[in-house]
Design a protein that fits this description.
By secondary structure, the protein is an alpha+beta fold. The protein has two helices and twelve strands.
Length: 177
């Protein structure tokens, strides 16, 4: 009976020793992580404070004259963001051709989307209004009857977008009719 008591006591000591080792390892890992974090944070903040010119990222700032140049009213009026137009889908559905697209990089609902299909000298063009989506400007779906396309085959599609503040166009996409 004495043997089992020693065995239980030895098991308890072993479990206690394992717990102490795990605890020490956790404390060591935490200390290393903290010192790594503090070291990288202080280096990053010191690197970002090296620049003393607050206007260095301003495209209207002139380093030669040490002054900020403001665009003329004409430049401001004619300045439009040039944004990519993405064709989400385009294809023949029953007796129509349907195009869905969106404008990445702007959220506004006052633009016009235009789908232009070309095949040689033939052109079919339709427009729709844009509307506000959560992260983009969406084009209302453009639906064109197949009968308006004078030839079957492969047509090239380009979507364009124009608003008071932005403009853009898509890459050309082949659409089979």
């Amino acid at each position: 009976m004495n043997i089992t008591k020693k065995s239980k006591s030895t098991k308890k000591k072993t479990i206690l020793l394992v717990c102490i080792v795990i605890f020490a390892l956790l404390i060591g890992a935490g200390t290393l992580t903290y010192s790594f974090y503090v070291h990288n944070t202080s280096r990053t903040s010191s690197e970002s404070s090296k620049s003393t010119d607050p206007n260095q990222n301003d495209p209207t700032y002139s380093t030669e004259k040490n002054e900020v140049t403001k665009p003329t009213p004409e430049e401001t009026e004619n300045a439009q963001k040039n944004l990519p137009v993405v064709i989400a889908s385009a294809g023949k559905i029953d007796n129509t051709v349907e195009v869905r697209a969106f404008v990445s990089g702007i959220i506004e609902g006052n633009g016009t989307c235009t789908a232009t299909f070309t095949k040689g000298s033939l052109t079919v063009t339709r427009s729709s209004k844009a509307f506000i989506d959560a992260t983009t400007s969406q084009c209302e779906p453009i639906v064109i009857p197949v009968s308006e396309f004078q030839q079957k085959g492969i047509w090239n599609l380009v979507m364009t977008y124009v608003s008071p503040d932005a403009k853009g166009s898509s890459e050309s996409m082949e659409v089979s009719l």
